[in-house]
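Entry 14. Structure prediction run on the chain below.
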Amino acid sequence: MSALPLLYPSPLREGATLGLAAPASPPLEPGKIPQIIERLRAQGFQVKAGKYLEKRDGYLAGTDQERADDLNALFADPEVDGILALRGGYGSCRILPLLDYAAIRKNPKPFLGYSDNTALHHAILKESGLVTFHGPNASEAFLSGNEEKLRSSLMHLPGPSGGSLFSRGDSQGETLRTVTPGRVRGRLLGGNMTCLLRLIGTPYAPDFSGAILFLEDIGEKAYRVDGMFTHLRLAGVLDQIGGLVLGRFNHDDEMERWRIDGCLQREAGRLRVPAISGAPIGHFQEQIIVPHGVEAELDATEGRLTFFLPPG
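Output returned:
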């Protein structure tokens, strides 16, 4: 948890300029970047690509320094109103020591991404106090099915009182299940489970005391999900949290999905804190945008998650 006062960025305006950076892996398909830029422009945004956006360094989108330089430059650029991560994959954790957190705090703006970008959310929160957003990467933004919701989220960030992220009964809460009933309030922290575990034992690991932890993952077998929960337990993380929100843990194999679900229900149930599963967070088009680091309230009995913004 950051010791700095939280900064909540301003919503984007019509015609805002979006910076595009690749903090982790390059696109899976050649020639994808121009298509992504055109899709963002079709939504009325201006786009400013990072200097090294199309660079490659094996499985990384450029060297560590190049990827960090792009992110630093886009935060510092007064013409850029918000920043989207190109995609996840792997590599964000490698650039954490190279980011200019003081400049990020001086230039607070929305940063959106998920999956491997989980590392950036935690580091930026801890080192600069800026609230960032766990949500679609640029490679998935404004695809069929998420255009209206994503645009609304970016253009109309909630006002001073915060807002509801999801609740049972709305279109985003259809798969919600109460694992352990109860209500708790705490800092909303989490993201991709695999990437979160890479931060344990580093200077960028958050303070989980009383936190509402949200987790999601994709393509991991049940025994690996079990192993990650065991890691969090042995590291003392699960003894500290006040609540648990399980998003989607996607897998192509139906039997593996059944095993994973059993693992999630078992591990969440043994914590004895308010917990829900099936939250609309994770690797799928209709995922919600989660403001990372804000104060939130989880009502696991009713299946509702609400957040509150810092004053000022």
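The two ends are 20 Å apart (CA to CA).
Filed with the rest of this week's runs.
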